[in-house]
Amino acid sequence: MGKVLQVENLHKLFTLHEFDGKRIIGCDSVSFSVEPGEFVGVRGKSGSGKSTMLKCLYRTYIPTSGEIWFASAQFGQIDLSSATERQISTIRRSEIGYVSQFLNVLPRVTAQQVVVNSLVETGADIETAQQKAASILAYFQIPADLWDAYPQNFSGGEKLRLNLAKEMVKQPRLLLLDEPTASLDNASKELVKDILYELKRSGTSMVGIFHDLDFMEQTVDTHYRMAEGVLGGVTV
In this protein, which residues make up the domain named ABC transporter (predicted)? Predict the structure, then answer.
């Protein structure tokens, strides 16, 4: 079985036009790979380029140069750095999940509907989506009386748990995690840890960026250190 993700010489340069075209390197010559069911963790100081790299993988940012080869079930081997917007949109719906520290959902959509919609996008029928949504919301200990509430009013921890729920419930081929435990208490971290193990066993590959080094070391298979946009220091 081949690699799920192969990143080759990824480079992202930002040009600040309001500052006479000043250029800032987001990430530089980043190369690594991810096997099926492998969890790769990346640590580093704020501003080291971790989030830039992750957003390039999700194609929130278009890389300046380099290649991001993804083993897609729908398109075969596809370079995410040059894929069309339509291809990226299709892959995001069912094959690549992204959990950020911040919940970004449509207004006036309930917490349960957020998760249901996430599943329906993958092709699940409504009844199955509703059952799985209820199950994962209960797993993440989001109180049942909040399921029909709007997430904009949730606490930071509740928003993050909902964000995790709506992406993890899809069991994507690749899951990208941006500080997945940033605002969670220890009990919630244990829930996240257990479901990450379950996803790995089911074959989901993951790339996560962390400041919580204790959590990272307990969950990842391989980890790197990032500094000034450069990835290095692999530890298995």
Answer: 5-236
